[in-house]
Specification:
- It contains 14 helices and 20 strands.
- The protein is of the alpha/beta class and about 550 residues long.
- It has three domains: about 375 residues, TIM Barrel; about 50 residues, Alpha-Beta Complex (Oligo-1,6-glucosidase, domain 2); about 70 residues, Golgi alpha-mannosidase II (Immunoglobulin-like), CATH 2.60.40.1180.
- It has an eight-stranded parallel beta sheet with strand order 11-10-9-5-2-1-13-12. Strands 14-15-16-20-18 form a five-stranded antiparallel beta sheet.
- A hairpin with an 8-residue loop joins strand 15 and strand 16.
- It is globular, with a radius of gyration of 23 Å.
- The structure holds alpha-D-glucopyranose and calcium ion.
- Calcium ion binds next to loops.
Length: about 550
Amino acid sequence: MSAEPIEDIWVYERVPGDPWWRDAVVYQVYLRSFADGNGDGIGDFAGLRARLPYLAELGVDAVWVTPHYVSGGADGGYDVVDFTAVDPSYGTVEDVRLLVEDAHALGLRILLDIVPNHTSDQHAWFRKALEDPDSPEAGFYHFLPASSSPPNNWQSMFGGSAWSRTPDGRWYLHLFTPQQPDLNWDNPAVADAFDDVLRFWFDLGVDGFRVDVAYGLFKDPAYRDNPGTYSPTLFGHGPEQAMTTNQPRVHQIWRRWRAICDSYAGDRMLVGEVSLADLDEVGLYARPDELHHAFQFRLLKSDWDAGAFAFADTIDEALTAFEAVGAPAPWVLGNHDKARQVTRYGSEARARAAALLMLALPGSAYLYAGEELGLPEASVPDEARRDPIFFRSSGKRLGRDGCRIPMPWTASAPSTGFSGSLAAEPWLPIPAEWPDYAVDRQVADPGSTLSLYQQAIMLRALHPALGSGHAAVTQDGDVIRVDLVARHGDATPVTCWINMGEAPVVIPAERLLLSSSPETDAPNGGVLKLTPDTTVWITS
Ligand code: GLC
Ligand code: CA
């Protein structure tokens, strides 16, 4: 990186009254794959606690931990058996309390992942409902009377019908695997039960929740067919799911949860998974009395394709949609459901450039563990695969295991240090090239992807035009330009440029703050050569 040394010291001041989450950098930990504290090959709370200093040093504000509950094991923990108990592979409730304590001591917040759309089929409610069709618990789910064919055309997101039969012939609804029966949120007892779950973890000190399938929960009460043809594209939710997602009644629940959040001290927050194609609809979930953040996945689903300007359009539309409701825009390029950026975009250089673009944008940025190491999507042998998507599609869809491989910490240690120095068999096989990406190699290298993330997050925290300013997006040929101005104070504006084309371009530049590429030369005579697949942050 050939950026000039930064001489002036910025005094970072948040906009007065801004809560911490408005422009937070949140780091998603895939608990099972982050760090194994006891050497059984499965990531756990002890491992995560030991690695908190790494996250503090990276500079993130908060850590979102994927589901840690006792689970049936059918969908990577998203099939919950007990919402107030910890899966013994991960630790205990006391470990969660200690995690929060350690995190707070380091200035980090902890978000848990809550799964209100469905339970595991092993959950006590569902077992009772199977046993006794007249039990109150049967009213917690969607059961329909026995008939020769499924009640309607609703499809599981993971393939096949969304209806399965009980042993006594009834149909029950599951938008995901048959082991994940959907809860019936029209039953007020369900909402009451979840209030208690939220309070249980808030009482323990957690700072908030990522809300799974927050655009789901309610279904068409008459169980009418979904219109049109269902598209098997994972999480590409449009009108073909009009009867199974985005029912207006769901907003009542977010108001209710927001009120619970607000009843606690210390700016607790909710971020919902809102996988809807229409960004204006997504924005509605982030109205001032609903969720604090509503994930939009358009950027995550955009290809590296400057011609189509998917990136520029998406950023512009998302900014407008969230501005309309006065909410910060949350940005995300990768998560545990999507192939890694390096592989999706075609190179580590592009993934680095995209990260720098995202980290400049106003709002919150969500990072997925391992993206700061430039990890590619791993190839997983079929016999080692765990994702139900692979099995339910008879192998036609590879599923999500390739982005869920254990983190490489120490190049020379067994399992690249995932289990410390212990030689444990990791729960998913670790590729032979993982040592190249190990944290201990990258911290020592100022040109590494880890160092780039660290510098970017630090500059973002220091400069009020980065990450929390006003942004104006323009495009010219294969180049996207984002002009960033602070919302408060008189900090110099920053311009973020990304070259998505194949040829270098010359851009106006006084001073280079940061470049995603080690090749970028310092500005000369008021211009800079922006090479392909590169993002720069420029100021005067
Ligand atoms: C969300 C999660 C995904 C899970 C699904 C069902 O989309 O991100 O991993 O499989 O919900 O809970
Ligand atoms: Ca373990």
